Amino acid sequence: MTTEADAVLSNDRWTANQIPSLAGRTFIVTGANSGLGYVTTRELARHGGHVIMAVRDEAKGKEALEELGERLPAANLELRHLDLSDLSSVKAFAQGIIADRMPVHVLINNAGIMMPPRSLTRQGFELQFGVNHLAHFALTGLLLKTLAVGSDARVVTVSSNAHKKGFIHFDDLTGERKYGGWEFYCQSKFANTVFALELDRRLRASGVPVKSILAHPGYSATNLQSSGPSGVLKLVMRLTNKCIAQNVDTGTLPQLYASTDSKAEGGQFIGPDGHGESKGYPTIVQPVETAKNPNTAKRLWDISEELTGVHFGLGAVSEIKRQQVRRMVLET
Length: 332
What we know:
Number of helices: 12
Strand content: 5-15%
Distance between the termini: 16 Å
Largest sheet: 8 strands, mixed
Structural class: alpha/beta
Number of strands: 8
Radius of gyration: 18 Å
Strand order of the largest sheet: 3-2-1-4-5-6-7-8
Shape: globular
Number of domains: 1
Protein backbone atom coordinates (compact mmCIF):
# COMPACT_ATOMS: atom_id res chain seq x y z
CA MET A 1 0.00 0.00 0.00
CA THR A 2 1.41 3.41 -0.96
CA THR A 3 1.43 5.88 1.92
CA GLU A 4 1.51 9.67 1.83
CA ALA A 5 5.16 9.53 2.88
CA ASP A 6 5.93 7.24 -0.06
CA ALA A 7 4.27 9.61 -2.50
CA VAL A 8 5.95 12.73 -1.16
CA LEU A 9 9.38 11.16 -1.23
CA SER A 10 8.87 9.81 -4.76
CA ASN A 11 7.44 13.05 -6.17
CA ASP A 12 10.30 15.08 -4.75
CA ARG A 13 12.77 13.05 -6.83
CA TRP A 14 15.34 13.35 -4.09
CA THR A 15 18.91 13.94 -5.27
CA ALA A 16 22.29 14.45 -3.63
CA ASN A 17 21.77 18.21 -3.98
CA GLN A 18 19.28 17.95 -1.12
CA ILE A 19 21.85 16.63 1.34
CA PRO A 20 22.11 19.18 4.17
CA SER A 21 25.36 20.44 5.64
CA LEU A 22 27.12 17.53 7.32
CA ALA A 23 29.71 19.62 9.13
CA GLY A 24 30.55 18.06 12.48
CA ARG A 25 29.22 14.63 11.54
CA THR A 26 31.39 11.53 11.12
CA PHE A 27 30.53 8.65 8.80
CA ILE A 28 32.10 5.23 8.37
CA VAL A 29 31.65 3.76 4.88
CA THR A 30 32.70 0.17 4.29
CA GLY A 31 33.95 -0.58 0.79
CA ALA A 32 34.57 3.14 0.25
CA ASN A 33 37.11 2.91 -2.55
CA SER A 34 34.79 1.89 -5.40
CA GLY A 35 31.22 1.73 -6.67
CA LEU A 36 28.44 2.75 -4.32
CA GLY A 37 30.90 3.27 -1.49
CA TYR A 38 33.05 5.67 -3.48
CA VAL A 39 30.10 7.81 -4.57
CA THR A 40 28.67 7.75 -1.04
CA THR A 41 32.03 8.93 0.31
CA ARG A 42 32.31 11.63 -2.33
CA GLU A 43 28.87 13.09 -1.64
CA LEU A 44 29.20 12.95 2.14
CA ALA A 45 32.55 14.73 1.91
CA ARG A 46 31.21 17.23 -0.61
CA HIS A 47 28.63 18.30 1.95
CA GLY A 48 31.11 18.70 4.79
CA GLY A 49 31.05 15.31 6.48
CA HIS A 50 34.10 13.63 7.98
CA VAL A 51 34.29 10.25 6.24
CA ILE A 52 36.28 7.26 7.42
CA MET A 53 36.96 5.16 4.35
CA ALA A 54 37.05 1.53 5.51
CA VAL A 55 38.77 -0.52 2.80
CA ARG A 56 40.28 -3.98 2.37
CA ASP A 57 42.79 -3.10 -0.36
CA GLU A 58 44.85 -0.23 1.04
CA ALA A 59 46.57 0.51 -2.30
CA LYS A 60 43.21 0.97 -4.04
CA GLY A 61 42.01 2.90 -1.03
CA LYS A 62 44.91 5.33 -1.33
CA GLU A 63 44.18 5.82 -5.02
CA ALA A 64 40.54 6.63 -4.22
CA LEU A 65 41.58 8.95 -1.38
CA GLU A 66 43.98 10.85 -3.63
CA GLU A 67 41.42 11.13 -6.42
CA LEU A 68 38.79 12.46 -4.03
CA GLY A 69 41.32 14.87 -2.57
CA GLU A 70 42.00 16.28 -6.02
CA ARG A 71 38.29 16.67 -6.77
CA LEU A 72 37.41 17.98 -3.32
CA PRO A 73 40.43 19.77 -1.83
CA ALA A 74 38.54 20.63 1.37
CA ALA A 75 37.34 17.05 1.90
CA ASN A 76 37.73 15.66 5.42
CA LEU A 77 38.68 12.06 4.67
CA GLU A 78 40.76 9.37 6.31
CA LEU A 79 41.62 5.85 5.29
CA ARG A 80 41.50 2.82 7.60
CA HIS A 81 42.05 -0.84 6.86
CA LEU A 82 39.11 -3.22 7.22
CA ASP A 83 39.04 -6.76 5.84
CA LEU A 84 35.47 -7.99 6.18
CA SER A 85 36.53 -11.55 5.39
CA ASP A 86 38.42 -11.68 8.69
CA LEU A 87 36.62 -10.99 11.98
CA SER A 88 39.92 -10.23 13.68
CA SER A 89 40.30 -7.31 11.25
CA VAL A 90 36.75 -6.17 12.01
CA LYS A 91 37.49 -6.19 15.73
CA ALA A 92 40.83 -4.39 15.25
CA PHE A 93 39.13 -1.70 13.16
CA ALA A 94 36.44 -1.14 15.79
CA GLN A 95 38.98 -1.12 18.60
CA GLY A 96 40.94 1.56 16.73
CA ILE A 97 37.86 3.77 16.41
CA ILE A 98 37.03 3.31 20.09
CA ALA A 99 40.62 3.83 21.28
CA ASP A 100 40.86 7.08 19.31
CA ARG A 101 37.65 8.27 20.98
CA MET A 102 36.36 8.83 17.50
CA PRO A 103 32.80 10.18 17.40
CA VAL A 104 30.72 8.26 14.85
CA HIS A 105 27.27 9.42 13.82
CA VAL A 106 26.51 7.09 10.91
CA LEU A 107 27.78 3.62 10.04
CA ILE A 108 27.09 2.66 6.42
CA ASN A 109 27.35 -1.10 5.95
CA ASN A 110 27.92 -0.86 2.22
CA ALA A 111 30.65 -3.29 1.15
CA GLY A 112 29.73 -6.62 -0.37
CA ILE A 113 30.73 -9.46 -2.61
CA MET A 114 28.54 -11.14 -5.21
CA MET A 115 28.47 -14.68 -6.59
CA PRO A 116 32.08 -15.84 -6.22
CA PRO A 117 33.02 -19.50 -6.53
CA ARG A 118 32.48 -21.19 -3.18
CA SER A 119 35.12 -20.02 -0.72
CA LEU A 120 35.43 -19.36 2.98
CA THR A 121 36.40 -16.46 5.21
CA ARG A 122 39.36 -16.58 7.58
CA GLN A 123 37.06 -18.00 10.27
CA GLY A 124 35.54 -20.61 7.94
CA PHE A 125 32.23 -18.95 7.00
CA GLU A 126 30.85 -19.01 3.47
CA LEU A 127 32.34 -15.87 1.94
CA GLN A 128 29.15 -14.01 0.98
CA PHE A 129 27.38 -14.71 4.26
CA GLY A 130 30.57 -13.88 6.16
CA VAL A 131 31.42 -10.63 4.38
CA ASN A 132 27.97 -9.27 3.56
CA HIS A 133 26.24 -10.19 6.82
CA LEU A 134 28.38 -11.51 9.66
CA ALA A 135 31.16 -8.92 9.39
CA HIS A 136 28.71 -6.03 9.27
CA PHE A 137 26.71 -7.56 12.12
CA ALA A 138 29.90 -7.69 14.20
CA LEU A 139 31.02 -4.20 13.21
CA THR A 140 27.65 -2.74 14.15
CA GLY A 141 27.64 -4.48 17.52
CA LEU A 142 31.19 -3.40 18.34
CA LEU A 143 30.48 0.24 17.50
CA LEU A 144 26.96 0.49 18.89
CA LYS A 145 27.93 2.24 22.14
CA THR A 146 30.05 4.71 20.18
CA LEU A 147 27.15 5.41 17.83
CA ALA A 148 24.66 5.81 20.66
CA VAL A 149 26.57 8.82 22.00
CA GLY A 150 26.16 10.81 18.77
CA SER A 151 23.19 12.90 17.73
CA ASP A 152 20.80 11.48 15.13
CA ALA A 153 22.88 8.29 15.02
CA ARG A 154 22.18 5.78 12.27
CA VAL A 155 23.17 2.36 11.00
CA VAL A 156 22.46 2.11 7.29
CA THR A 157 22.59 -1.43 5.94
CA VAL A 158 22.76 -1.82 2.18
CA SER A 159 20.71 -4.76 0.97
CA SER A 160 19.50 -5.70 -2.52
CA ASN A 161 16.33 -6.51 -4.42
CA ALA A 162 17.82 -10.02 -4.44
CA HIS A 163 16.82 -10.37 -0.78
CA LYS A 164 13.32 -11.16 -2.03
CA LYS A 165 14.57 -14.48 -3.38
CA GLY A 166 16.59 -15.36 -0.30
CA PHE A 167 16.23 -17.47 2.82
CA ILE A 168 18.67 -18.67 5.46
CA HIS A 169 20.21 -22.12 4.98
CA PHE A 170 20.42 -22.69 8.72
CA ASP A 171 21.34 -26.35 8.18
CA ASP A 172 24.08 -25.56 5.63
CA LEU A 173 25.38 -22.02 6.20
CA THR A 174 28.77 -22.78 4.62
CA GLY A 175 27.30 -24.31 1.46
CA GLU A 176 29.24 -27.50 2.04
CA ARG A 177 26.36 -29.72 0.97
CA LYS A 178 25.12 -27.62 -1.93
CA TYR A 179 26.39 -24.24 -3.10
CA GLY A 180 25.12 -21.83 -5.72
CA GLY A 181 26.64 -18.38 -6.05
CA TRP A 182 23.35 -16.61 -6.75
CA GLU A 183 21.42 -18.55 -4.11
CA PHE A 184 23.96 -17.73 -1.41
CA TYR A 185 24.17 -14.10 -2.53
CA CYS A 186 20.39 -13.87 -2.06
CA GLN A 187 20.82 -15.49 1.36
CA SER A 188 23.34 -12.83 2.40
CA LYS A 189 21.10 -9.96 1.26
CA PHE A 190 18.11 -11.56 2.98
CA ALA A 191 20.23 -11.76 6.13
CA ASN A 192 21.09 -8.04 5.79
CA THR A 193 17.40 -7.25 5.63
CA VAL A 194 16.36 -9.48 8.53
CA PHE A 195 19.22 -8.12 10.64
CA ALA A 196 18.47 -4.43 10.00
CA LEU A 197 14.76 -4.85 10.75
CA GLU A 198 15.46 -6.81 13.93
CA LEU A 199 18.08 -4.26 14.98
CA ASP A 200 15.48 -1.52 14.62
CA ARG A 201 13.02 -3.44 16.81
CA ARG A 202 15.63 -4.12 19.49
CA LEU A 203 16.93 -0.56 19.50
CA ARG A 204 13.42 0.83 19.93
CA ALA A 205 12.52 -1.67 22.61
CA SER A 206 15.73 -0.92 24.52
CA GLY A 207 15.44 2.83 24.14
CA VAL A 208 18.82 3.13 22.41
CA PRO A 209 18.86 6.36 20.33
CA VAL A 210 20.17 4.85 17.09
CA LYS A 211 18.18 4.37 13.88
CA SER A 212 18.54 1.20 11.82
CA ILE A 213 17.66 1.93 8.19
CA LEU A 214 17.80 -0.26 5.09
CA ALA A 215 18.63 0.82 1.55
CA HIS A 216 19.13 -0.85 -1.80
CA PRO A 217 20.43 0.55 -5.10
CA GLY A 218 18.24 -1.30 -7.57
CA TYR A 219 20.21 -2.55 -10.55
CA SER A 220 23.18 -0.21 -10.66
CA ALA A 221 26.34 -0.47 -12.73
CA THR A 222 29.16 -1.13 -10.27
CA ASN A 223 32.12 -3.48 -10.13
CA LEU A 224 30.15 -5.77 -7.80
CA GLN A 225 28.68 -7.67 -10.74
CA SER A 226 32.07 -8.31 -12.33
CA SER A 227 34.36 -8.74 -9.31
CA GLY A 228 32.67 -11.87 -7.95
CA PRO A 229 31.22 -13.90 -10.84
CA SER A 230 33.52 -15.82 -13.16
CA GLY A 231 33.42 -17.21 -16.68
CA VAL A 232 30.40 -16.61 -18.90
CA LEU A 233 28.40 -15.11 -16.05
CA LYS A 234 31.02 -12.39 -15.62
CA LEU A 235 30.71 -11.45 -19.29
CA VAL A 236 26.91 -11.40 -19.05
CA MET A 237 27.10 -9.12 -16.02
CA ARG A 238 29.38 -6.70 -17.84
CA LEU A 239 26.94 -6.58 -20.76
CA THR A 240 23.88 -5.97 -18.57
CA ASN A 241 25.76 -3.26 -16.68
CA LYS A 242 26.16 -1.40 -19.97
CA CYS A 243 22.72 -2.05 -21.41
CA ILE A 244 20.27 -2.32 -18.51
CA ALA A 245 21.66 -0.93 -15.26
CA GLN A 246 21.30 2.64 -14.05
CA ASN A 247 24.40 4.68 -13.33
CA VAL A 248 26.08 4.37 -9.96
CA ASP A 249 25.39 7.99 -8.97
CA THR A 250 21.64 7.38 -9.12
CA GLY A 251 21.99 3.95 -7.52
CA THR A 252 23.72 5.50 -4.52
CA LEU A 253 20.87 7.90 -3.74
CA PRO A 254 18.84 5.53 -1.50
CA GLN A 255 21.72 5.00 0.92
CA LEU A 256 22.60 8.69 0.85
CA TYR A 257 19.00 9.56 1.69
CA ALA A 258 18.96 6.99 4.50
CA SER A 259 22.25 8.37 5.84
CA THR A 260 21.52 12.08 5.73
CA ASP A 261 17.89 13.12 5.34
CA SER A 262 15.99 14.28 8.42
CA LYS A 263 12.85 12.42 7.30
CA ALA A 264 14.53 9.00 7.23
CA GLU A 265 13.32 6.86 10.12
CA GLY A 266 14.42 3.63 11.74
CA GLY A 267 12.82 0.56 10.21
CA GLN A 268 12.37 2.14 6.79
CA PHE A 269 13.64 0.51 3.60
CA ILE A 270 14.72 3.02 0.94
CA GLY A 271 15.00 1.92 -2.68
CA PRO A 272 14.41 3.16 -6.26
CA ASP A 273 10.91 4.29 -7.24
CA GLY A 274 10.95 2.79 -10.75
CA HIS A 275 9.31 -0.38 -12.04
CA GLY A 276 10.35 -3.38 -9.99
CA GLU A 277 12.59 -1.12 -7.87
CA SER A 278 15.33 -1.60 -10.46
CA LYS A 279 15.90 2.07 -11.26
CA GLY A 280 14.83 5.48 -10.11
CA TYR A 281 14.94 7.90 -7.23
CA PRO A 282 14.65 7.15 -3.50
CA THR A 283 11.32 6.12 -2.08
CA ILE A 284 10.10 3.91 0.76
CA VAL A 285 9.88 0.28 -0.38
CA GLN A 286 8.84 -2.89 1.38
CA PRO A 287 10.96 -5.90 2.33
CA VAL A 288 9.78 -9.36 1.39
CA GLU A 289 7.26 -10.59 3.95
CA THR A 290 9.43 -13.51 5.09
CA ALA A 291 12.11 -11.04 6.23
CA LYS A 292 9.71 -9.85 8.93
CA ASN A 293 9.30 -13.29 10.50
CA PRO A 294 10.18 -12.94 14.22
CA ASN A 295 11.33 -16.55 14.56
CA THR A 296 13.73 -16.18 11.64
CA ALA A 297 14.99 -12.90 13.07
CA LYS A 298 15.68 -14.32 16.50
CA ARG A 299 17.34 -17.44 15.12
CA LEU A 300 19.58 -15.41 12.79
CA TRP A 301 20.44 -12.95 15.56
CA ASP A 302 21.35 -15.70 18.00
CA ILE A 303 23.51 -17.61 15.53
CA SER A 304 25.19 -14.39 14.37
CA GLU A 305 26.16 -13.54 17.94
CA GLU A 306 27.41 -17.08 18.44
CA LEU A 307 29.48 -17.15 15.23
CA THR A 308 30.99 -13.68 15.62
CA GLY A 309 31.35 -13.63 19.39
CA VAL A 310 29.85 -10.12 19.36
CA HIS A 311 26.93 -9.49 21.71
CA PHE A 312 24.91 -6.29 21.38
CA GLY A 313 23.46 -6.24 24.87
CA LEU A 314 20.01 -5.71 23.35
CA GLY A 315 17.42 -8.14 24.63
CA ALA A 316 15.13 -10.15 22.39
CA VAL A 317 11.81 -8.47 21.70
CA SER A 318 8.67 -10.11 23.08
CA GLU A 319 5.69 -10.50 20.78
CA ILE A 320 3.76 -7.86 22.72
CA LYS A 321 6.66 -5.47 22.44
CA ARG A 322 6.98 -6.26 18.73
CA GLN A 323 3.38 -5.17 18.18
CA GLN A 324 4.01 -1.95 20.12
CA VAL A 325 7.12 -1.21 18.08
CA ARG A 326 5.29 -2.02 14.85
CA ARG A 327 2.61 0.54 15.74
CA MET A 328 5.33 3.09 16.48
CA VAL A 329 6.90 2.49 13.06
CA LEU A 330 3.55 2.85 11.28
CA GLU A 331 2.84 6.10 13.09
CA THR A 332 6.16 7.73 12.10
